[in-house]
Automatic annotation (TrEMBL):
Tagged with keyword S-adenosyl-L-methionine: no
Recorded metabolic or biological pathway in which this protein acts: Amino-acid biosynthesis; L-proline biosynthesis; L-proline from L-glutamate 5-semialdehyde: step 1/1
Enzyme class: oxidoreductase
Species the sequence originates in: Oscillatoria acuminata PCC 6304
Keyword line: Amino-acid biosynthesis, Cytoplasm, NADP, Oxidoreductase, Proline biosynthesis
Protein name per Swiss-Prot or TrEMBL: Pyrroline-5-carboxylate reductase
């Protein structure tokens, strides 16, 4: 089997990228081989997407166009140490790493001479609404970057940043969907506390976040300007905003991004 796209690790993010790439016809299922040690997972991916599956990472390393690393950072050393040189018949793939924290220096030590792009996507990639930051390694030529971007653009927007900012990206957009989900859950609980039935509270909370994000994206309104427009003098919103400020909401968000950024740095060291 000639493997154009190889994916090592068929978990949440491996599947998110895989599913969108197939839906967008960026790759045919027959061009993709994905490895995972969990047999149940392999069977699911093969049945759901019609891709090739294996428990042997070495077979996936034979990919000729893109080799996507979608394993946890904690197993990177052992997985990379057991891999043969990527590619076959002189066709070397670009390695696309989505591993939190793992720096290009470490990736390039593990795969000498291979073009490597470090990236950080996020879970909205599953529905094509992700955002990914990328940082190219020293061996990356424009055509390698294009190949990596083609994969990542199938799941959302792509921005390029200096590698020194990748941990901060991980703390913000990589981890951010969890913060937003907690916010939506908390808004829902607030609605329930105020007497709303839970299903209606959940619908109101979700659409409020989605609608506000869409409004801000389409109008390019500054967040403070939008807040001012909602906040009537002596009205309801300022009463709520005052409570958020008293509870340290802004500070909690800033500290969350900072803590996740630091954790990303730790994972790579
Ligand atoms: N979940 C998220 O929101 C995001 C995760 N990431 C990064 O993506 C990577 C994967 O994360 P998830 O998909 O969330 O994790 P996951 O735990 O859902 O998937 C990891 C997969 O790797 C498999 N695996 C374990 N050992 C392996 C081995 N030796 N060889 C091959 N596969 C092996 C596991 O069975 C599992 O299916 C991580 O490095 C993480 O930092 C990046 C952006 C967002
Ligand atoms: O929590 C994590 O480590 C991964 C990286 C970004 C999102 N999830």
């Amino acid at each position: 089997m000639l493997v154009k796209l190889g994916i090592i690790g068929g978990g949440v993010m491996g599947e998110a990228l895989l599913s969108r790439l197939i839906a967008r016809a960026a790759y045919q299922p027959g061009d993709i081989l994905i490895s995972d040690p969990m047999q149940q997972r392999r069977e699911f991916l093969a049945k759901q997407y019609g891709v090739g599956v294996t428990g042997d990472n070495a077979k996936v390393a034979a990919a000729t166009e893109v080799l996507l690393l979608a394993i946890k950072p904690q197993v990177f050393e052992s997985v990379s140490a057991a891999l043969p040189s990527p590619g076959q018949n002189g066709q070397i793939p670009v390695i696309l790493s989505i591993l939190a924290g793992v720096p290009l220096s470490k990736l390039e030590r593990a795969f000498p001479g291979v073009p490597i792009v470090r990236s950080m996507p996020n879970t909205p990639a599953t529905v094509g609404a992700g955002i990914t930051a990328i940082a190219p390694g020293t061996q990356v030529q424009p055509e390698h970057l294009d190949r990596a971007k083609t994969v990542l653009q199938a799941v959302g927007d792509v921005v390029q940043v200096p590698e020194s900012l990748m941990d901060a990206v991980t703390g913000l957009s990589g981890s951010g969907p969890a913060y937003v989900a907690i916010f939506i859950e908390a808004l829902t609980d607030g609605g329930v506390r105020a007497g709303l039935p839970r299903p209606i509270a959940a619908q109101l909370a979700l659409q409020t976040v989605l609608g506000t994000a869409t409004l801000m994206q389409e109008t390019q309104l500054h967040p403070a300007e939008l807040k001012d427009r909602v906040t009537s003098p002596g009205g309801t919103t300022i009463a709520g905003v005052a409570q958020l400020e008293k509870a340290g909401f802004r500070s909690a968000c800033i500290e969350a991004v900072q803590a996740a950024t630091e954790r990303s740095r730790q994972l790579g060291s």
